[in-house]
Specification:
About 30% of the residues lie in helices and about 20% in strands. The protein is built from 5 helices and 8 strands. Strands 2-3-1-4-5 form a 5-stranded parallel beta sheet. A 3-stranded antiparallel beta sheet has the order 6-7-8, with no helix packed on it. The N and C termini lie far apart (about 45 Å).
């Protein structure tokens, strides 16, 4: 997106993840500059809570909650500025199945798909048509092909690589077992109350 002087939007489900990703991305791109003639530093901003969505439009990379991303897209559509978006990366795409946040995420993707459809059908639409790269990421989503088709993508990229190993355990009757049914530990009654 930066090559085309467009915004990259990184969508996450929770404010804590917005803050974490903002710090992480800023650290990763420290010292990097845009590829255009200005050669200015790449600007990263977070948007959540009471922050006005237009206040982050000066950024190249916007890290934002699902709810704020919807508000941002609505605002850009109303102001005919949606063509400024080049990429929307959605972390934790499995949030689509969440009863509280899933519908908002589905609405967000549907709006972007609608704007892309407008771009193909009407070159002089009253809406600001866009062509956006949609990226969905998850370590746990089961229906990768279905989401890929919905995004209008080609073959999905799937890897088993994990930067942090995933270890699964089962707790039953206050006892912790590994996946080979070996007993590992017992929880005290106080812990069991909090776990269940």
């Amino acid at each position: 997106a930066l090559v085309y002087k467009k915004k990259s939007i990184f969508v996450v489900p929770f404010v804590t993840l917005v803050c974490e990703k903002e710090k992480d991305i800023k650290a990763r791109i420290r010292g990097m500059k845009t590829v255009d003639a200005s050669q200015r530093k790449i600007v990263v901003k977070a948007c959540h809570g009471d922050i006005n969505v237009l206040a982050v439009m000066s950024a190249d990379i916007i890290i934002i909650t699902i709810e704020k991303a919807n508000k941002l897209i609505n605002t850009l559509m109303a102001r005919k500025l949606s063509s400024k978006i080049g990429c929307i990366a959605i972390d934790e795409i499995h949030t689509l199945a969440d009863p509280d946040k899933g519908y908002n995420l589905e609405i967000l993707v549907s709006k972007v798909k609608f704007l892309e459809m407008q771009a193909k059908r009407f070159s002089n639409s009253r809406l600001s048509p866009i062509k956006v790269q949609l990226v969905g990421m998850s370590a746990t989503v089961g229906n990768v092909n279905q989401i890929s088709n919905w995004f209008g993508a080609g073959e999905p990229y799937v890897t088993q690589f994990r930067p942090v190993p995933l270890t699964e355990y089962v707790v039953h009757g206050g006892i912790i077992y590994d996946m080979n049914r070996r007993r590992l530990a017992s929880l005290s009654n106080e812990h069991v109350k909090h776990v269940y």
